[in-house]
Records
---
Amino acid sequence: MAIVPLERKPLTLAERSYLPGIVGGLKTTLKHLFQPNVTMEYPEQRPALPPGYRGAPTLVKDPHGREKCVSCQLCEFVCPPKAIRITPGEIPADAPTAHVEKAPKEFEIDMLRCIYCGLCQEVCPEEAIWLQNQFSLTGYTREEMVHNKQRLYELGGTLPDPHLKWDKKLAAEVAGGASH
Amino acid sequence: MVDFYFNLHPIVQGLLKGLAVILVIFPIGGICSMAERKVSAWIQGRPGPNRAIPFWFAWVPVIGPLLQRLGIFHVMADGGKMLFKEDALPGHVNKFYFVLAPILAMVPALTTVTTVPFGAYVDGAGKVIPLALANVDIGLLAVFAVSSLGVYSIILAGWASNSKYPFLGGVRASAQLISYELSLTLSVVPVFLWINAPGTPGTLSLARAVEFQSGDWQGLTMASWGGVWFIFLMPVAALIFMVSLFAETNRHPFDMAEGEADLVGGFHTEYGAFKWGLFFVAEYAHMLIGSGVFTLLFLGGWNPLPWVPIATLASWLHIAHLPIVVGLLSIAIFLAKVIALIFFFMWVRWTIPRFRYDQIMKLGWQKLLPLAIANLLFYAVAIAVIQK
């Protein structure tokens, strides 16, 4: 490494007087005075969310309106802050989706604990839990911030499902005569 | 109406004038604080305060939302907040002086306003009469003498707060103000040397300074000097005066008394609510007076342009026979200049970082003071040669 000695020039009188520097600074700030704002007026203007945004976790239904969660409780086990609490339940035998066998009786996510890590979505074998675009959650009480099953489905809505695996399974069972 | 006023007892007249000063300075202080927030926001690319609006005013189309965007109602919201907040009095302070300090801040600020002329009208004889609450002949001396009392409020606030950061703020402010007062005063001496030519009655009146800058264009002769504003004749004096003014009013980059980075809030750390508000109204009043004096001394006061005095403008517009219209016009011109200067104060504040304390002292004593003296000597010689 060659050492390059730099000549340190003494400041000129104009530079030492600090005035050209001030004038330059004033010019810069004046330019900014007339530039459009860089901030967003939040409640009125919302940011455009990028695809793959991880907002609040929600539960979704498939296009036929079937709740996709089968209460396997994987998300509950993987959740690092232990924000999810699932009470598993059975689907009654006379329901059209009886072959799915299980569905959550109650599904609670404590949004005061949730860290929006997305592990629940990653681990879900049914693609039933999704972190969607909802990022602004407020409430007056702690109870309000614990999302129950109904609230989670309200937030989640319906997402397209390319697999519809339970329909395929039912079709296969019917075609195979459910012999086994 | 006017006769009725002049027939009142002088004390009643004085009280009315005092009331007028309070009614004008307090709203201006509030508006200046809002302007400061808005200017800072615009310079930083933000919209600034733009939320508060009385619900019934929101019904007014166009004007309502416009005023809301400009943050006009935040002025009232701020004022209301200051008035109705709990005015806590810390237990460890010296209560008498602690309460006295903000009052003492207001008194010189409101007093000096009275001696600053703010407009002029042309009377029947074609003579320009200045408008001022107290057009005293010692004009500038009165302004300097009274407004420098303002530093006592800062010292008192810092001392009475009985806590270390306010105390440091007070000490810094006093040293700074004393340092810069010298250059401030020396920088205006050439102006009055020029005005008080041999054979004319000696005066320190601010109105006389404006009158002196009210000459017409008379060709390329010595008589045209009178129309040039002093900022063009004495740019160095104007610069020194401006810099010292920033220091005297404790504005950025000289706001050592506050210095929130190193002193929490400086002298007003222990203050809250209305007492805190008084300090700020006083600061803005000082800015207002400082800008006014600068306008009168260096920017031609109420004359619209160099070589275009207000009397000439009035005769061009054919309003010379209407004293009230001319008076309002001159006030508008004067205020426009003052507002431009206050904007400059704010513009500088959001441009330049704060100086270090030793830099301030060095600038004051080692740079500005010798420069002011050299400037004075130069003009003393030059004026002696010109006016011989």
---
Amino acid sequence: MASKGPEVPLLSVEGLSFSYLDSPRAALTDVNLKINRGEIVILAGQSGCGKSTLLRCVNGLIPHMYPGDYKGRIVVDGDVVAETPMGKLAQMVGFLFQNPENQIFMFSVERDIAFGLENQGLPRQEMRRRVDEVMGLLHIEPLALRPPHELSDGQKQRVALAGIIAMRPNLVILDEPTSLLDPKTASELVSLVSKLNKELGITFVIVEHRLELLTPIADRIVVMDKGRVVMEGTPTEVLTNPASSTHGLAIPPVFSLYSELAERGSRLPRAPLTPEEMAQELNAP
Amino acid sequence: MTFVHQNGVKALDGVSLTIEKHELVGIVGENGAGKTTLVRHINGLLRPTSGSVLIDGADARGTSVAKLSRKIGIAFQNPDHQLFSESVEHEITFALKNFGFDDALIEQRLNWALDFFGLKEYHKSSPLILSGGEKKRLTLASILAWDPEVVVLDEPTVGQDAIQKAKLLEIARTLHSAGKTIIIVSHDVEFLWSLQPRLVVMKRGRVVEDGPCAVVMQERELLEDARVSQPQLVALYESLSRRPASPFQDVSQALSWVSGERR
Amino acid sequence: MYWLASGLLYRRVVSPFTKLDPRIKLLIAIEFFVLSLLASSVIGVAIIIASIVAVAAFARSLRRVGRTVAFSLIFATFIFVLNLWIGLGLLRSLTFALRFIAIIGSTSIFFITTSPDELEQIMKWMRIPRDVVFAFVTAVRFIPVVMLDAFQIMDAQKSRGLELEKGGLLSRVRNLIPVLIPLVVNSVIRSGELAEAMESRGYGSTPKPTSLYGMRLRWYDKAVLVLSLAVFVLALYIYHFYTFPF
């Protein structure tokens, strides 16, 4: 399902500039970006670099909800975002916001998962089928009738994600999905993302400061600084480039060790993504 | 400083912990393991149902939160839960006025805090216009300003980018070397690893491990059970077939060992 | 304090009463309400209160209904004393006081056994506009969340030496400012995030949204419906033709 090739990209951002109403500063300046079907892309950069603004442009909150000075265009799956109604965009682009608490509206998990489907006006049987399917996929069936205040942060996160997946989007945006989670829950979320990518072919764009969590599953990292895309490439290309730390990226130790070694003339044959992979390289005679 | 603390309710279950003056302590554990509840006992926001909390050897039972806070400053996770003043300056002096500092001292402490936390240029601005990282530093400034002996940081790195994290690391190190007792509750194992604190692992309201960071972080099964992951450098160290006596504390240590091996 | 917040949370209880169609639960509550208003004797109201207690037990919610009723006792006592004082006589004053308890009991039985989801369905069934229904749902959903915010803010400010209970009335009010401002700021942030999340899940994209749950009267509901109406009519008949001794 997930084919990665030079075909028509799922998402293409073309010369996008944007400044919010009554803000003198441009939040985005001439952003160009293409994301292919089935990719997992990390969007990185320090706070205030324009990541959130770009994400809101992709799912249509900008310009539909936040007007401003908008130049250029974004095309998702053949539709120009600025000209497509929010209702349709909601089915194409899912958005998991940072705080799961503020995206659960209903009093039971299954009802909340159905929220987007109700808004679409799907018949009850179809909703029931999709809700059950998604709960199975995310292993949250036992929570079906629980009210949100009885859920842990990790469970809330899963429920919010389930509500998005139920709408069957091609592209899902995750905005700092692990910031409130403990390490193990965070890595479980990462495995879930990888599974959804493989099994359903969902393309992910993920904003995350703790890069070490996501580099093992990411195809690409896109780095933003001051409203522009400044670097782009595979995790190894970006994180072993000395420029990346000047853009405020926290280089995971494995990558800094790899590039320091290379600089000292003992480059490892294969660039590792995890500590275990690095140890393998080092253990090799 | 000593506190022993025991509690009958589920949130905390027979916790006994003694923290000495000038110690640097990290507390880890999954969400709901009781870390936040434990922290709230230190300055009396919560009182134990059984057992006791001793501060400087004295039972905290009869002492008000305000009195205890004078000695123990807690910086909670979310800056938006405490910033309320019309200016950064007022935000910092709020507690000092509550504690009855005189004007000259307030002035002096304000200047120190603005300077130490890099907030000088904003001293007249509203806290609401600050960035996430600046808000975090203002929160710390508003607490360190009254010079508490013990500083508790609740999830200091949540939502902070690499640059802010580096600043927080620097702040924690400076405060510790200035003689403060520091307690950090955090999920961020990489951040804790850089600080090498004494590490307390909590699970379901109990303290399940307590020891030097470098030792505790190697107890893979225990950490797994408490849903804490290992820092990258420890995971790397453990997967090496030939390795030094203890894990690498930072990249440069790892680098010098690895390049020595490969020569 | 935390206890107060938890009291506001809906707790799912499975019982023969809670699984009734919410409209039937509403009807039963209304029947109790009307009967309490019409009852004019101590025995009459006492029988109603006893029936409410029986239904609450049947709904496995005796303790929660009991808690609200216990709370209403304060006001009931006040009503009793007031009526006695204006010269209504012992029996009539007692009737008024008991009637108040019965009214509180009948309404609380409905709200305690009905989930916010069911309330929403009833509101939709009454053809209340969706935006209004949704505003209600979100308000109920976020009451405990905002209360938790308030507690966390109070903790943060107390840790900065704020003493909420210190001083006279004026300074106590002033002491609330450091709590109220962050609470308002947080609520504004929260509502902004909610609006974004709603938009992103296509709220309002079709004029005819559907619902995962529906209300359908099963034979069980119909049986209870007939039974409750029969008892109601019988009670009205007794009220009309029979006079209790006191």
